[in-house]
Write a structure and sequence with these properties.
- There is one protein chain.
- The chain is mostly helical and 64 residues long.
- The protein has a domain of 42 residues.
- It contains two helices and no strands.
- The protein is globular, with a radius of gyration of 13 Å.
């Protein structure tokens, strides 16, 4: 069964792409205003911003 692509998922992908581009250019800042240097931190910021805009992104799984 083929998946439908919705407009919201496209917007979310664009937001994540924008954040990762900012990280590559060295202009991405964290909440405290410092420059982000870690790829993992950039991914976390991108997913957080996408969730705030209403994206249906699953929460991080806890490893016990």
């Amino acid at each position: 069964m083929a998946e439908k692509s919705s407009a919201s998922s496209t917007k979310d992908q664009l937001k994540i792409h924008k954040v990762m581009t900012e990280k590559k250019q060295g202009t991405l800042k964290s909440g405290s205003g410092k420059k982000v240097t870690s790829r993992k931190q950039a991914v976390a910021i991108a997913l957080s911003e996408a969730r705030k805009s209403g994206a249906k992104i699953p929460k991080k799984k806890k490893s016990w």
